[in-house]
Amino acid sequence: MKTSSLFNHKTVLSLEVFPPKRTAPVDTIYNTLDELKGITPDFISVTYGAGGSENSQTTLKIASAIKHKYGIESVAHIPCLNLTREDVLLILEQLKEQKIENILALRGDRVPDREPAGDFRYASDLVEFIKLHGDFNIIGACYPEGHQESGGLVRDMKHLKDKVDAGVSQLITQLFFDNEYFYRFRERMDLVGIHVPVEAGIMPVVNKKQIERMVSLCGVKLPKKFISVMERYGDNPIAMRDAGIAYAVDQIVDLAAGGVDGIHLYTMNNPYIANRIYESVFRLMAS
Ligand code: FAD
């Protein structure tokens, strides 16, 4: 099923998981998925380390298991910067064999000491290429606070419009902690004429280290309310975990009331947190 069709009926709830680190056997992901069994998401997406084609097999294996073993629609991420056209063609063939119809088409981040492969410069190049080589539902990434390298919000929106026009039928945002950025972003989408559904990416922050990493990696801004939570509970792991979950639930309730198309939960492969959030919000999603 193409996940873009889900938005006609309800507020979509999707989850994101990542392949286990190189030091852990890939099969440990099944423990995570088994423990998510209380949740019935509309789809689960699987990330892909931007290193190159060697990472594709793990992503494909997990996306295939989600679809065929767990009976949940899956989305495979493909970051293109370090892939050649031949690499992508091979991945598309494998996706067709596994009957996976949904791709999150990404540029990926630059890997230190590695020259990009040179065939794809932007995600929109990958979107055009996929369009030519199969009947896939293509999802794109977007940035309510603007992408760090875009040179400003106006340019970023223009590039996003080009990406959507190239063949993207739904969007997922980078995480954010202040819903106002999301609401302003939706207004900008309207202004430039982007009319595809957009899911809000929500990441429950449950420890101080995680947030420091996110701020330096994605450049997201932390609202005052969030900083107060960190200051108050940051050194108490259990209290910080509970506060992080409550903060994410609060964001989701506000977004659902604000008519969001969907919520994409960055689970960080932590079923306990995902389950607790789901218990709090699933009725909102259904209504
Ligand atoms: P693009 O859409 O190509 O945009 C990148 C930058 O280029 C932006 O600043 C844009 O404004 C600019 N730009 C676009 N087109 C043009 C143009 N024609 N001329 C000039 N500038 C242009 N990374 C991974 O490696 N693996 C993953 O699995 C992964 N999953 C992700 C999931 C989500 C939901 C999100 C939001 C991000 C994910 N990322 C992942 C991170 C992503 O790869 C990075 O954020 C990357 O820096 C940008 O990717 P993009 O697809 O948005 O790029």
Automatic annotation (TrEMBL):
Keywords: Amino-acid biosynthesis, FAD, Flavoprotein, Methionine biosynthesis, NAD, Oxidoreductase. Its cofactor is FAD. Its EC number is 1.5.1.54. Gene3D superfamilies: 3.20.20.220. GO terms for biological process: methionine biosynthetic process; tetrahydrofolate interconversion. GO terms for molecular function: FAD binding; methylenetetrahydrofolate reductase (NADH) activity. SUPFAM superfamilies: FAD-linked oxidoreductase. Pathway: One-carbon metabolism; tetrahydrofolate interconversion; Amino-acid biosynthesis; L-methionine biosynthesis via de novo pathway. This is Methylenetetrahydrofolate reductase. NCBIfam families: fadh2. Belongs to the methylenetetrahydrofolate reductase family. The keyword Transferase does not apply. It holds the Pfam family MTHFR. One of its GO terms (cellular component) is cytosol. It catalyses: (6S)-5-methyl-5,6,7,8-tetrahydrofolate + NAD(+) = (6R)-5,10-methylene-5,6,7,8-tetrahydrofolate + NADH + H(+).
